[in-house]
Design a protein that fits this description.
The chain is built from 5 helices and no strands. The chain has 179 residues and is mostly helical. The longest helix has 56 residues.
């Protein structure tokens, strides 16, 4: 039967693993949100730019009445504004950074899972392994893009409700580990 220090080590690793899973899920949710936002801005910008850039405005300047010219001018300005917003927001780049952070948290979670799997056999996890995991977790937390506190709380709540219902991570739709 494991003694108290081993149990505390296991609890520490389980806590770190839970935090990694929460952050992984939160980064993946944020990446999806940024991709949707990029499409929401990008698609209208492309449509407006294509309609105006096709020569429609230039070729029909003499055929358009005053109101249609004003509408075409407003559409051109809207296309320019949407394109500027899309370029300055860089939602796609931010989504990739969140996706990458989520993958790194997932990788660290698997590393912790491996250490936990070995623990009952050896009944002790080397201090060096704990130090390596802690340093990697600290480094990853510093490098990862910031997340909204509301998003983290939402993911924590979802994690707690899954645990209270007895739902295992292996059964979770967020499980990316394949057997």
């Amino acid at each position: 039967m494991p003694d108290k220090p081993v149990m505390r080590t296991i609890e520490l690793l389980e806590d770190w693993q839970r935090k990694c899973r929460i952050k992984q899920r939160a980064h993946n949710v944020e990446a999806g949100s940024l991709v949707r936002r990029n499409r929401l801005i990008g698609i209208p910008a492309v449509v407006l730019s294509a309609a105006l850039g096709s020569g429609l405005l230039g070729a029909t300047q003499t055929l358009l009445g005053g109101r249609l010219r004003i509408f075409a001018g407003i559409a051109g300005i809207a296309a320019a504004i949407l394109t500027a917003i899309q370029m300055s927001a860089n939602n796609y780049g931010a989504a990739e950074r969140h996706r990458s952070a989520g993958a790194h948290f997932d990788s660290l979670s698997r590393e912790i899972e491996q250490s936990l799997a070995i623990c009952p056999v050896s009944e002790d996890i080397p201090l060096q392994t704990l130090e390596t995991i802690r340093k990697e977790l600290d480094s990853l937390s510093e490098r990862a893009p910031a997340l909204a506190l509301e998003l983290l709380e939402e993911r924590r709540s979802a994690s707690v409700s899954e645990a209270s219902r007895g739902r295992r991570f292996e059964d979770s739709p967020y499980n990316t580990i394949t057997s």
